Amino acid sequence: xxxxxxxxxxxxxxxxxxxxxxxxxxxxxxxxxxxxxxxxxxxxxxxxxxxxxxxxxxxxxxxxxxxxxxxxxxxxxxxxxxxxxxxxxxxxxxxxxxxxxxxxxxxxxxxxxxxxxxxxxxxxxxxxxxxxxxxxxxxxxxxxxxxxxxxxxxxxxxxxxxxxxxxxxxxxxxxxxxxxxxxxxxxxxxxxxxxxxxxxxxxxxxxxxxxxxxxxxxxxxxxxxxxxxxxxxxxx
Length: 236
Description:
This protein has two domains: about 5-30 and about 180-235, no CATH class; about 35-180, no CATH class. It is about 30% helix and about 15% strand. It is built from seven helices and five strands, in the order ααββαβαβαβαα. It is globular.
């Protein structure tokens, strides 16, 4: 459960300490992402991919790269994205039929632009305009990745493609505004800006996940172990 949703929507405000209410009120959600999940007959290894991610930055200035994401026109190349292939990460797991491969392309894309009109709507019930917009952005992302996988956007090479937006995260994962990493990964939201000790001043309630120590798999695992140890002590 997203920390922001838990404290703003689920927990009785009457039992939340005032200091925690102030902290939650200050927390800013992280940005969302746009995803392309592709099934193709293009062998990613032949195209030059390995089991590692390719992370593309358009500019050597990282801040400039991320600042340019919301400013891009819908048909412009994405200035930041990463490309990965589950088929190469675990080739013995048969993620796809013989001769077919999976490729994932992911880039940052804010919730507020351009998906706000469909906020709160149900998945697969957002109408033609949303579907058109999602596919327009999605194909732009696929074409951007052709820098590393030539001809990927050719229809005969896209045996299957599914695009997902920040609204997908909001609906299916219940993340606040479709954010990827709980609270925004900003300096003022680390340490005392998060729930770094996995507690919130409410007996028996422990905070784990991206809103505790930090975002990322390792931090979330550590928060779970730490919270479990505290829960065991509480239970005696």
